[in-house]
Write a structure and sequence with these properties.
Number of helices of chain B: 0
Radius of gyration of chain A: 13 Å
Strand order of the largest sheet of chain B: 2-10-9-4-5-6
Strand content of chain A: over 45%
Distance between the termini of chain B: 40 Å
Order of helices and strands of chain B: EEEEEEEEEE
Oligomer: heterodimer
Helix content of chain B: under 10%
Order of helices and strands of chain A: EEEEEEEEEE
Helix content of chain A: under 10%
Number of strands of chain A: 10
Largest sheet of chain A: 7 strands, mixed
Structural class of chain B: mainly beta
Shape of chain A: globular
Shape of chain B: globular
Radius of gyration of chain B: 13 Å
Chain lengths: 108, 116
Amino acid sequence: EIVLTQSPGTLSLSPGERATLSCRASQSVSSNYLTWYQHKPGQAPRLLIYGASIRATGIPDRFSGSGSGTDFTLTISRLEPEDFAVYYCQQYGISPGLTFGGGTKVEI
Amino acid sequence: QVQLVQSGAEVKKPGASVKVSCKASGYTFTAYYIHWVRQAPGQGLEWMGWINSNSGGTNYAQKFQGRVTMTRDTSISTAYMELSSLRSDDTAVYYCARDLYWADYWGQGTLVTVSS
């Protein structure tokens, strides 16, 4: 079973700064199946990036994803106030179906 | 527009079962899988399993094997997740979400509280 480890656990930044979030897999993951979500309290998670680097519909271009193999990165180029949230990476496999990382909280 | 609307909050006693519904609209229900994902208080997202909305085939996370049952009723575009033998650590928000390799649309979440 693939384990996804996200770092750091918490990222303390200010609006306008750049955020770099890491997701490391315990074994190689197909880039086609590496996904990033944003999750705010009281809301459903929001799909940001799929296929490691493809922005979902309506996602601003300040969000970008990159990486391959076991190392993936979500970058937020300039933080807006609404970007402060928890971010999860996720991979798809035959068994189990979806695996989530532990999350990175981006806080002010 | 695509919507997944879940049933309301539930309070259950330990040992009981809960059944959460997820009604889909705005797309062809049988064309997409439905995942169930939960989030316990202060914890991250945890995948429980998926159901193939067309065939009814399922794939459950090993942790929930024997306790979870996912079904669907194509006539009303609704998926269901039933969890039995509830324990206090099953207290969580339960989400349904669409698609297979990732989840592009999510329900609003259903809070299930297990308490004596």
